[in-house]
Each structure stands twice: as C-alpha cells, then as structure tokens.
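Deliverable D5.2: sample structural annotation.
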Amino acid sequence: MPERSREPAEPSFCYLTTTGRITGRPHRIEIWFALHDDTVYVLSGGRDRSDWVRNVMVSPDVVLEIGDRKRTSRARVVEPDTEEDTLARSLLVEKYQPHSGDDLTDWGARSLPVAIAWP
C-alpha cells in the first residue's frame, strides 16, 4: 500500500461544511479523515443517505478545515470498486483502528468514500 502523507500533529478530526441542497445554508460536520498526497478522504457510514453526502452530490463546493487550516475546495464521491476506493477505505481504517475500541473493518467496507481536494 502507498505511503500516506501526514503532516506533523495531524488532528483526529476535520470539519466539513457543505451547502444545504434544499435550504442553501451552510451545514458543518466534524468527521474522521485521512490525508493522502493532495486529497482528503472521509467515509460516510450513512452512505448516500447522509445529508452532507446528498449536499455534496448537488453542490460539490465545500469548505474543509484541518486544524487551523481552512480551504474552499471541491468534494466528490469516489467511484466504487477502483484503486482509489480501496485506498480511501484502508487509509481511514488504518488511521483510526489502533485508537478505537471497536473493530472498524465493517465500517470501512460498508461506508461511502468521499474525496476532497487539498492542494
């Protein structure tokens, strides 16, 4: 598996703000993430039933905050059954499994990966 890019003292969570597909208002969530090269990956346990994923599918422009860094970017659902799909899932499980009291294998396999540009 490729090496994962990590910046010093990478936080455990990031904040993702999407635009509400119905209201047009900002919708901010705290979510686990993994940074690889110039892409941040997140997983939606609710898959495309999650409001924030539905928002991204309508309006991919998002605001992503990692620590004290805040950037406007674009998000997209990762194509299923691709190398990127496998990479996103493994990065998140690898990052959080050592600190979790639960087995994250099923979460990693069933969740929907979303990629966010982090140039």
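Annotation notes: Confidence is low (pLDDT under 50) at residues 1-8. The chain has three helices and seven strands.
The annotation will be released with the project's public dataset once the embargo ends.
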